[in-house]
């Protein structure tokens, strides 16, 4: 099945194709036909399953262009911005305006946006303030509650009920929630009219496109393990989840000191700072976002390649929400969890709840990281198309150096990646030819003191090789009857041990 099967308007279909969406997700396949038919709907599905498009696309398809036809209520300002951005992306060829309403922003500015908006995306508190003060009067045809259980947890249930007293009774109402506690079921009975029910089963809770692994280390080794995994996996864009705001701030400072392009995201930051961090991350000016669960709620970025759980969350729903930040829009993703032996029971509880076994792997040692980078460099060189400027460079240098020396120096420069402007991918940015020739003439080894650049880091911290590969977090035998968690690398056997290990 494809999105063309829904027979959307031509302008909407164009934006879907431009966004790279091809095959609808399970929640979209089930929900969109009901919504297009005008039926009320209760959808139980976790973040990352494509809920925004599931309700956004059919609603956009039904809008006539009048003001405030659709109202979407979400729990947090971050989610409000994300949903608004997503709807703007899908509706840009329909000439529809979207207003985002949340606390901490100017009332005057938001009221002006609402005047010309076909879609309002709002948090409950600020929107209720506007209604109570009679600053707005809206009669939406479509009302959507997204992340209803999250709004319940945040104490917004009474606000939601009051908001509905201001809304017209003739409307199409949609409710989406990851879980269905009694309070949400009772709310659905009150505000919906003979709704259809859709549930994404436990087997569908985690995206099959996401590879899930875990690494066991001691508590004091979390930082070093994270750095080693980054060096080995070389993620293009990643989110790191921590349990507390304090952990987020500390880890952000640490990674920046190691040369990474990283920023923090948590609730104690000023709204402007949070918006700047999200904007930089979405535009790829930032490669790492370090966040708490609450701050990252609803964060919708389709090109996140990796999610790292610096700490395991306490429950399976948070885990599903976290890893759902990657593997979006049909792309592959990687979810990595760093686990201590004390957290092993928490890991087992999460595995049981989501119905998925995570693969146990060993943090790679320095020699493994080096070899992987050498292999990648070989592949880059073998597959690199010969450019005219490359021929010119060799011709200009061959009277001074023999071909082997030129090749060695070029390889050194490529390895350090200091010859590329702007981005670290070979052949994808303008080459600074003058700088390159100067570097070759001077020895081609200026990359040696650039080991802490954002990519190609190669550390031997404190003169020691913390050899996680020799015992640290070894793979456990799932067929074993023993419930003893795997040892961290403080339990490492002598180096002469001939045990079988899986390393990544």
TrEMBL record:
A Pfam family annotated for this UniProt entry: Helicase_C
Bias type Low complexity, positions: 478-488
Domain Helicase ATP-binding: 32-198
Chain intervals for the UniProt region annotation (Disordered): 442-504
Record field: compositional bias (Basic and acidic residues): 443-468
GO CC annotations, alphabetized: cytosol
GO molecular function terms attached to this record: ATP binding; hydrolase activity; nucleic acid binding; RNA helicase activity
Alphabetized UniProt keyword annotations: ATP-binding, Helicase, Hydrolase, Nucleotide-binding
Record keyword Nucleotide-binding present: yes
Domain Helicase C-terminal per the UniProt entry, residue ranges: 209-370
Motif (Q motif): 1-29
InterPro entries documented for this protein: DEAD/DEAH_box_helicase_dom, DEAD/DEAH_RhlB, DEAD_box_RNA_helicase, Helicase_ATP-bd, Helicase_C-like, P-loop_NTPase, RNA-helicase_DEAD-box_CS, RNA_helicase_DEAD_Q_motif
Domain of life according to the entry: Bacteria
Family the entry assigns: Belongs to the DEAD box helicase family.
Protein name (Swiss-Prot/TrEMBL): DEAD/DEAH box helicase
Gene source species: Aliarcobacter vitoriensis
Taxonomy of the source species: Bacteria, Pseudomonadati, Campylobacterota, Epsilonproteobacteria, Campylobacterales
